[in-house]
Amino acid sequence: MKKILFTLLLIIFMKDAMAENTNEKLLLELTHGEVVIELHSDVAPLHVERIKQLTKEGFYDGIVFHRVIEGFMAQTGDPTGTGMGGSNYPDVIAEFSNKPFERGTIGMARSSNPNSANSQFFICFKPAPFLNGQYTVWGTVVDGMDYVDAIARGEPPVEPDKIVRMSLIEE
Q1: pTM of the prediction?
Q2: How far apart are the first and last CA of the chain?
Q3: Which of 72, 39, 31 is nearest to 55 (CA)?
Q4: Annotated domain spans of the chain
Q5: Looking at domain 25-169, which CATH architecture does it have?
Q6: Strand 73-76's sheet: what is its strand order?
Q7: Which pLDDT score, from 0 to 100, does residue 170 have?
Q8: Are 113 and 158 within 8 A, CB to CB?
Q9: Got the DSSP string for 70-123?
């Protein structure tokens, strides 16, 4: 009986904890203004945990948007600024879902290996259904998309915009 009660309490606690995680947000301070990102730990818990870990370490602060394609997306998260770099942590396994890539959707960049996501991510300027089920969705811009739209275009941009600072929003 004690085991059953313990298990039920554990399930209730975990359910409440997971529900709280779906309200987590990041503040992405860009050159032109602030962007608020809602994290989707319910869809991609491993990727969200990696993003949070790197954010807490200040990894993203000062990193440029090295690949920005008009009508598609803005990519960042590479400390070398070349599109070939990442963090010193192991890659994260794919967490593909049926969550669609729409305007403001944030996905994890990777190589042709589905399990090669590390620190790079991209923000979609408009819907990109060809990415659905092929890349991990870990967040959505909920405020400040106009500042994302203002990011300088290019591969790489001549004068790239950067992440001034990225931080967790404490509620």
Answers
A1: 0.87
A2: 37
A3: 39
A4: 25-169
A5: Beta Barrel (2.40)
A6: 67-69, 73-76, 121-124, 105-108, 137-143, 34-39, 25-30, 163-169
A7: 81
A8: no
A9: TTTEEEE--TTSSSS---SSPPBPP---S----TTEEEE---SSTT-B-S-EEE
